[in-house]
Automatic annotation (TrEMBL):
SUPFAM superfamilies: Homeodomain-like (SSF46689). GO terms for molecular function: DNA-binding transcription factor activity; sequence-specific DNA binding. PROSITE patterns: HTH_ARAC_FAMILY_1 (PS00041), HTH_ARAC_FAMILY_2 (PS01124). This is AraC family transcriptional regulator. It comes from the Bacteria. SMART domains: HTH_ARAC (SM00342). It comes from Nitratireductor indicus C115. Residues 214-315 form the HTH araC/xylS-type domain. The keyword Ribonucleoprotein does not apply. Pfam families: AraC_binding_2, HTH_18. Keywords: DNA-binding, Transcription, Transcription regulation.
Length: 324
């Protein structure tokens, strides 16, 4: 997996601060101004995955700014700032002036300009960046803490320890296992956000897996007729492994393929019994619902409804016409 290291001390002494500033602006979309250029120290270790970024940083006193121009270059991610040592102050557009120290977490919408101040001494912060779409099942809980600090609850501590462990081992993990661990981090964030808001599904006791499964089912409904719909396509969209998706549906005593087939069969059944669709052939209806293999479709339909599609259509249309 991709890991990056950025140290102020790696640059030539005569141009150290300017070169470091250019690197931070390019890589992190931030402007950084040391309080004392002569003694300034900074070290950042970054771990990169398609659906997750982790970072461990150390700064001496400095000001860090995300300008509107730099903010526009960032993705639609949520950055979680967790002070490990020391503290920082933060102000983002639309938020309040806050101070975040150990025992707290700051929730940062990356696309929002802001300014952070790191005080005297050594400040250490752990960061996790997650695509906003991966947290859609926790939208209410997320909005409640956006551009603000939250207390370090047991749920947030569990997230932090797991994310720090993943960060430490990232370069040694096979890609598929790293992606699976990234999904676990996302789930722990969902759980932590839900625990802060009783209205959330997770806080009502249905669990992280239930929230994840609901998000995938909702996505299936939105793309039910798409020929692209498959377990690998869905895994890529949600930033999780195919194995994890299969385990979610196995917990419901079904498979991803069978669940999609059932939803498509119900759509076909509705169309077959709708007089407005009487001009379409059974094959056309099946194809429009996303079935590519007509033989498999016919077998599934008979197994589910106990009759052929033509029989279901003939009976429903006869009833409809008899009423007119």
């Amino acid at each position: 997996m991709n890991t990056l290291s950025l140290r102020a001390s790696d640059f030539e002494p005569g141009h150290r601060v300017a070169a470091f500033q250019d690197a931070v602006s390019s890589m992190c979309k931030l402007d950084i101004t040391p309080a004392d250029p002569e003694t300034f120290q900074s070290h950042t270790e970054i771990g990169l995955l398609p659906t997750l970024m982790t970072g461990q940083t150390m700064h001496s006193a400095c000001t860090v700014v995300r300008t509107p121009t730099l903010a526009a270059e960032t993705g639609d991610n949520i950055m979680l700032h967790v002070p490990v040592k020391g503290a920082f102050s933060m102000h983002q557009r639309g938020g309040q002036d806050v101070v975040c120290g150990p025992g707290q977490i700051y929730v940062d919408p990356n696309e929002m300009p802001g300014i952070a101040e790191f005080g005297e001494g050594r400040t250490e912060v752990f960061y996790v960046s997650i695509p906003r779409g991966c947290l859609q099942s926790s939208a209410r809980g997320l909005n409640a803490v956006m551009r603000d600090t939250a207390a370090m609850t047991p749920q947030w501590r569990l997230f932090l320890r797991y994310a720090q462990s993943l960060h430490a081992e990232l370069r040694l993990l096979p890609p598929d296992q790293a992606l699976q661990c990234a999904a676990h981090v996302q789930d722990l964030v969902v759980m932590a956000l839900g625990a802060a808001n009783e209205r959330m599904e997770i806080a009502r006791g249905r669990g992280v897996r239930a929230a994840r499964l609901k998000a995938i089912r909702d996505d299936i409904e939105q793309h039910l007729t798409s020929t692209e719909l498959s377990v690998d396509w869905m895994a890529a969209r949600h930033g999780i492994s195919q194995r994890y998706i299969r385990s979610l549906f196995a917990g419901e005593e079904t498979t991803f393929r069978d669940y999609v087939a059932v939803r498509r069969l119900r759509l076909v059944h509705r169309m077959l019994t709708d007089p407005a669709c009487s001009g379409l052939t059974v094959s056309e209806i099946a194809m429009s619902a996303g079935f590519g293999d007509l033989s498999w479709f016919n077998n599934c339909f008979r197994r589910t409804y106990g009759r052929t599609p033509s029989d279901i259509r003939a009976e429903a249309l006869a009833v409809a016409f008899s009423r007119n």
